[in-house]
Design brief:
The complex is a heterodimer.
Chain A lengths: L3 E4 L2 E5 L4 E7 L6 E7 L6 E7 L4 E4 L2 E6 L4 E6 L8 E9 L4 E4 L3 E6 L1
Parallel strand pairs in A: 2-11
Antiparallel strand pairs in A: 1-3, 3-8, 4-5, 4-9, 6-7, 7-8, 9-10, 9-11
Chain B lengths: L3 E4 L2 E4 L5 E7 L5 E7 L5 E9 L2 E4 L6 E3 L9 E3 L8 E8 L8 E2 L3 E5 L1
The chains are: A mainly beta, B mainly beta.
């Protein structure tokens, strides 16, 4: 079945710097890759997603890139702000039922 | 917020007791899911339901049970057979099983002592 690996597990940046989180997946049939942000004690919220027919998608300060050949996708956050501090999860659709398989998360800390 | 709710937010139980976690959605979504979240872990799928009166086991279904008698509701029972039930439980829904975008409830933190 699908396996999603996410790196790094923790990331600390200075306010204004960029942050990059990377995920790899194993199932070449996967075709949907969302990113969720989870603040402490809160629900995960979808922040951006990408489908396998595009290589990059942007939404203001966040972007996601997908390399289908290498089976990896990345989240890019530019001009980071303290409110970007949270745990970020990547996921991929995997398995015959098409259920989301999640990475283990990256705890991002943005220092003012 | 709103659309998908879970109750209660915090739940405490003694070991050996069954406990049922509530999940309700008013989004008219067909598919609903239950995940378990542990520190340092991703979200692991317990059960999911693509349509009323039908549900499937996820990756970690042992010790859990569900029902889907109504489209809006997908309660999860944590049974005494679940060896390590203390965790944060998240319910989610999507328009259809193949629409992919999942929306999460606020979660229930279950503590069993």
């Amino acid at each position: 079945g699908e396996n999603v690996e996410q790196h790094p597990s923790t990331l600390s940046v200075q306010e204004g710097d960029s942050a990059v989180i990377k995920c790899t997946y194993s199932d070449s049939a996967s075709n949907y890759f969302p990113w969720y942000k989870q603040e402490l004690g809160k629900r995960p919220q979808l922040i951006i997603d990408i489908r396998s027919n595009v290589g990059e998608k942007k939404d203001q300060r966040i972007a996601v890139t997908l390399n289908k050949t290498a089976k990896h996708f990345s989240l890019h956050i530019t001009e980071t702000q303290p409110e970007d501090s949270a745990v970020y999860f990547c996921a991929a659709i995997g398995g015959s039922q098409g259920n989301l398989i999640f990475g283990k998360g990256t705890k991002l800390s943005v220092k003012p | 917020d709103g659309g998908i709710t879970q109750s209660p937010k915090y739940l405490f139980r003694k070991e050996g007791q069954n406990v049922t976690l509530s999940c309700e959605q008013n989004l008219n979504h067909d598919a609903m899911y239950w995940y378990r979240q542990d520190p340092g872990q991703g979200l692991r799928l317990i059960y999911y339901s693509q349509i009323v009166n039908d549900f499937q086991k996820g990756d970690i279904a042992e010790g859990y049970s569900v029902s889907r008698e109504k489209k809006e509701s997908f309660p999860l029972t944590v049974t005494s057979a679940q060896k390590n039930p203390t965790a944060f439980y998240l319910c989610a829904s999507s328009m259809a099983a193949d629409s992919y975008e999942q929306y999460f409830g606020p979660g229930t933190r279950l503590t069993v002592t």
